[in-house]
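Protein in question passed on here:
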Amino acid sequence: MTVKAQSLQGQWQCLYPQVDTNSATIDSACISLDNRGLAYGDGFFTTMGVIDGAVLWQDYHVKRLISHAQALQLNIDNQDHIAKLIVSLQAQAGELQQGIMKLIVTRATQTARGYGFVPNTSGSDCEVWLKATAMSIDSSQYLCLANTPSIPLQPNTQAVCLTSQLASMPPPLAGLKSLNRLDSVLASGELQRINAASAALGFGEGLLRDMTGRWVEGTMSNVFYQLSSAQLTDSSHNTRYSDHYLSGQWFTPPIVHSGVAGVMRQVLLDSFANTDSPVIMRPLKDKDLPNLQALFFCNAVRGVMPVSELSLLSGKVIHF
């Protein structure tokens, strides 16, 4: 597997398989209509922020590449392949300096008809595509946690509960950032319509439910929350938490059947793991919303996005 480090900002580049530069230039690379990512959503992606020429949370993105390749049986997870990809990404980031890089991995065109693919011990061959876009990432404020590089902290935003719901996915697809994102597309469209209808509100993010009605994540982010007080019971593990004031205790919905196990979500889980108050994975239900004490969204590009108020489906507004 050979990857390139040339840069064409704002354009898609095929990092693998390599274009024959004797007969074509890198900017002539184009995606085929037979690409399985286009035809079936057969692949995954990861979106990386770049600040001062460095990829934010690079190790976590690499772990995603490895875990997703294994889950989808793609031949990209050996050390040699990953090492070459890292070199290419670092070179791209060094030239970009400030912006976003999106990496898409799809299964290569197969001889098998339709959805089928020919399995082998190392996984299917794949195509790797990259787009680097120069843009300003707000990094004027940071959240500093123990044993963790500073996390960008965005200004407070307003959020709204959406009627759109997330699709349920079976193992091993649950939690993957696969190319099958139609539920997020429709949810983002709903958020855009709400903002267009009431421009004065300007909701920065929307909260989404899964098919069971539990609130899981945002349209482009994971969510963490605090409760003012609650009787917490995890019936699946027969564990009961006593009544107490949950000041400082953060929760995040488990990513089991719906949603994406995001990079920044994992960064925060790891950061709090060795503190006195590790994050507890706990479903967020309708009855919890009036008891919310704090709420923030997060993703690997924007970092932490605190919420100042949340508009519920009933029209009630929770202020933080």
